[in-house]
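Hi support team,

I've been running sequence recovery on a batch of backbones for a student project. Most finish fine, but this one hangs at about 90% for roughly twenty minutes before it completes. I'm not sure whether the input is malformed or the queue is just slow. I've pasted the structure tokens below so you can try to reproduce it. Let me know if you need the job ID as well.

Thanks,
M.K.
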């Protein structure tokens, strides 16, 4: 379903609609397919532009200590409702093994209770730290964070742009698949599609220090800050 068909499905014939329809997807960042009617306006999204710092909380102190000890960090988070099976954890352990020069921070989320066998697997990786919560805003803005492996939710995409940290997107549902393709086509990162260890490792190596990706993220950040 193309862009105008989707909105007509939701709102009815939008060319004849008396109301103004507003989207928080800036047209200058993401192009849309098809005709955009005159009553459809793009505005800057309500992304959180506030720079958050780490607190003195024990969890924050632990994360900050890890970041300070590792000059290059890959941050992995699949969102609030992210779930990590044993298969996922094996792939993440492979990522940590194949990227020994990187620290890996895995945000498992507050809602997931890792099984002892899965915790044991994670504990075997000396360059991996797993936490049940992290401030993505503060973490992405730390100088050590080089790559953000995300599910590709819109908030995560905007946080990546604001921090100019390249994305590796592993979508799960909804608009995340579309966002994944957009991130890839606009050179904000790589659409990995699946949490495959080898694919993520190759994406990290491609993105870290990539001048084109950094430049496009900087342009996106400037657009969001208008």
């Amino acid at each position: 379903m193309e862009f105008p068909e989707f909105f007509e499905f939701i709102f009815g014939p939008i060319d004849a609609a008396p109301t103004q329809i507003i989207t928080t997807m800036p047209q200058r960042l993401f192009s849309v397919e098809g005709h955009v009617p005159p009553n459809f306006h793009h505005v800057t999204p309500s992304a959180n532009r506030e720079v958050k710092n780490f607190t003195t909380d024990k969890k924050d102190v632990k994360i900050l200590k890890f970041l300070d000890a590792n000059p290059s960090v890959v941050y992995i988070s699949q969102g609030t409702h992210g779930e990590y099976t044993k298969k996922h954890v094996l792939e993440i352990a492979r990522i940590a093994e194949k990227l020994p020069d990187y620290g890996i921070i895995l945000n498992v989320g507050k809602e997931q209770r890792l099984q002892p066998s899965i915790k044991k697997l994670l504990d075997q990786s000396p360059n991996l730290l797993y936490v049940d919560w992290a401030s993505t805003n503060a973490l992405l803005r730390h100088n050590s964070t080089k790559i953000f492996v995300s599910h590709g939710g819109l908030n995560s995409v905007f946080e990546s742009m604001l921090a100019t940290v390249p994305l590796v997107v592993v979508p799960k549902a909804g608009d995340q698949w579309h966002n994944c393709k957009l991130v890839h086509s606009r050179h904000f990162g790589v659409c990995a599609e699946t949490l495959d260890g080898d694919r993520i490792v190759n994406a990290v190596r491609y993105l870290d220090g990539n001048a084109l990706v950094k430049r496009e993220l900087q342009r996106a950040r400037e657009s969001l800050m208008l």
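--
Follow-up from support: It reproduced on our side and the slowdown came from queue contention, not your input. Residues 3-42 form one domain. No action needed from you.
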